[in-house]
Amino acid sequence: MDPDRPTTTDRAPLDDAALALLVRDIADEWSLPPQRLDALTWRDRVSRGRRAGGAGGASRWRWPRGLRGATAVAVAVVTTVSLSFAAVWLTAQRGEHGTLGSSPSPGGTSSPVPAGSALPAASPMPKLVRNGDLPTPSRLMVRTGQGYHLADLATGELGPVLIEIGHGPTALLARPGGGWVCFCGDGQGVIRLSLTTVDANGLVGAPKPIRDIVGSYDPSASEALQPLRADVRVSASPDGRLALIGWIRRDGEAGWQTGADVINLDTLATVASTEFLLDEPVDVDGRPRIRPAPLVRLSPTGDQILLASQWFVSDPGPWSPGAGMDHWLASFDGRSIGALVDAGATPGDACFEFDAGHIDVDPPTDDAVYYGTCWSPAGALVVNRVAADGRLVGATEFPGSLGGVDRGTLALPSGDAFFSWNPFDGVLSRLDLRSGELRVGEPQRPNRSGRTDPSADLIVVNTDGTRVYTLGIASTDGSRDSAGVYAFDASTLAPLGHWPAQADLTSISVSDDGRYVYAAATGGLSAAGDPAPEFGASITAYDTSDGSVALIAGRLAARDLTLGEAICR
Fold first, then answer.
1. Please, which contacts does 75-82 make with residues 24 or more away whose CB atoms are closer than 8 Å?
2. What is the average pLDDT score of the chain?
3. Which of 176, 186, 224, 410 has the most beta carbons within 10 angstroms of its beta carbon?
4. HSE-up of residue 334 (Cα within 13 Å, Cβ side)
5. Are the C-beta atoms of 418 and 430 separated by less than 8 Å?
6. Phi-psi region of 471 (alpha: psi -120 to 50; beta: other; left: phi over 0)
7. How many CA atoms lie within 13 A of 401 on its CB side?
8. 385 CB contacts (<8 Å, ≥6 apart)?
9. Is 410 exposed, middle or buried (0-12, 13-18, 19+ CB in 10 A)?
């Protein structure tokens, strides 16, 4: 603005002609960012299989040649006006905040949302907006296609790559005292597993070797039948204090050597280890038999370890006799792992199991001690509850056609509860792992047709297990994407709030103290799912007390950005 212009108290209002001239003057100095409409978006990635000619990948759309210049000018004017409106809105005093209880009706019509929680959908994301206190934590570990970075919410900047990915198995876990540790594997047939620390400021330490996992071919079989000779899988204990490493290697014609390591995330010392041999051939009727690294899970009470080892024949589909999951249980006293005991197997033709874990059995209500999560041949989500001797205690099939919905819609169990989120119908389900009781919540909007595969985590449970937060998908026709954040009571599944999306949200996490929910957008789309090259990756922090927007970091210089951990500490 011209400092010599009269103040608002002694000047006449601008007429339409003067306002138009002002907009044109600003637009003449504004240039449209380079168009990237040929870039893959979240919707392109998840819906490429549904489109005509889906085998050819995502479709590409370009401006007609004769319209590019005119379109750029039109967008420039509209965007400038939108930016002006957004700037006024973002700096205005906030109205009275709504409560966490303001939520959409089951029919899909939302109740009033917290004042100040909705940006104009067509305007570019702001660089940085903060309403009140800086959310804590304010430095988040995020992941892009290149690796792990720190996003600084105080400055709205994305830091450089701290840990690269793509060279081998890579897992990043938070440390109890702050910072992170990477369990980084270099190689494939020979994996040199090491740990690398990253402190809260992003300082990367020197690698510390853990073990070399050296696979060798069975000389009696073709190398083509042995595509996987070594693998590693890493997870954290329920209390976040231990790293649980499952590993496997082919030991020539002897079979699969597999085992587990337990590492203290504070001291980085190896607490306990175990290993055993699975004597089985490399192929089944001339087809490769693949056995990835086992899942290693620690019980909520910390006194028992579960190993779950998946295997499958590479050629046929998953629901066939050529697949299954084997289970073993062992005691754990904090210093050593006891003898592994066979705990049964799930055949793939009955249900294709992809995850497993302990059931909190203190106090026990039946003899189920672990669960297995699988897809039935009909594509339904099923959770099996199993006794220590492998006996099936109960199987629960979740309602709705969930075929194609991936693990991003399932939350790690919180206590004795297992949660499943259908992002298309807006339905949250809760299974009591002790009793087998299934509770299904009310739909948060009308049913939509056409399923696709979410590519990131759409559900998170806070640390005390009282709240569930989810991301909704507004439609599946590519015209609208993000339906925003939904908050639920974890026990009753009652909706507690619906917070509008500020961008095309694709991953979600919650602060350790439960005060903030963070939702990330990978970039390239507006909240309405429209192509918007000026929308970089973004992170929105919501205050969970009322759903108001606490902060927006709106122009992070990255694509394909997702939050790196479910609980931010």
1. 75/32, 76/27, 76/30, 76/31, 76/32, 77/23, 77/24, 77/27, 78/122, 79/30, 79/122, 79/123, 79/124, 79/534, 80/23, 80/26, 80/27, 80/30, 81/23, 82/120, 82/122, 82/123, 82/124
2. 76
3. 410
4. 3
5. yes
6. beta
7. 6
8. 359, 366, 368, 370, 371, 392, 393, 394, 395, 396, 433, 436
9. buried
List 511's β-bridge partners, or say none. 568
Nearest to residue 392, comparing CAs of 378, 374, 410, 405?
374
Beta-sheet pairing, 392-397 with 482-489: unpaired
Split at pLDDT 50, 70, 90, the class of 472 is confident
Pairwise CA distance, residues 336 & 330, whole Å: 10
Question: What pLDDT was estimated at residue 456?
Answer: 60
pLDDT band at 168 (very low <50, low <70, confident <90, very high): confident
**Which two three-digit tokens encode residue 136?**
């804590």
- pLDDT single digits (tens) 69-112: 333 333 333 333 333 333 323 333 332 232 343 333 323 333 33
Residue 424: pLDDT band with limits 50, 70, 90:
confident
Tokens of residue 443, six digits: 């739909």
* Helix (H) or strand (E) segment spanning residue 521: strand 516-521
